[in-house]
Specification:
Oligomer: single chain
Structural class: mainly beta
Number of helices: 0
Number of domains: 1
Strand content: 25-35%
């Protein structure tokens, strides 16, 4: 399994990171992408793309945690639900 990041900027064009994690990371792996926020962008939607690779054997579980932005000038940047812990729009598990 390989994973890459797509940043869908609202008010600007999308950017594909071109950076992949996997395969065979064997545990947690950090994916880092550095760039400048495009002019006109007002918000961003993070999308993760998962790709099968040779030797992939379903099912497979992928965990994503602690997404964040860093500012080069030291001002804090807020990321709503960056730790992926709150999902208010999801329906509860069936009983």
């Amino acid at each position: 399994m390989r994973i890459t990041v797509v940043l869908d900027w609202v008010g600007a064009s999308s950017q594909y990171s071109g950076t992949y994690v996997g395969p065979t990371t064997g545990g947690w792996a950090q994916l880092v992408y550095e760039d400048i926020v495009p002019d006109g962008a007002t918000e961003v939607i993070l999308r993760l793309r998962f790709y099968d690779v040779a030797g992939f054997s379903p099912p497979e579980t992928q965990y994503v945690d602690d997404f964040g932005f860093e500012s080069p000038i030291g001002e804090p940047l807020t990321v709503a639900n960056g730790d992926f812990e709150n999902w208010p729009t999801l329906k509860p598990e069936p009983t």
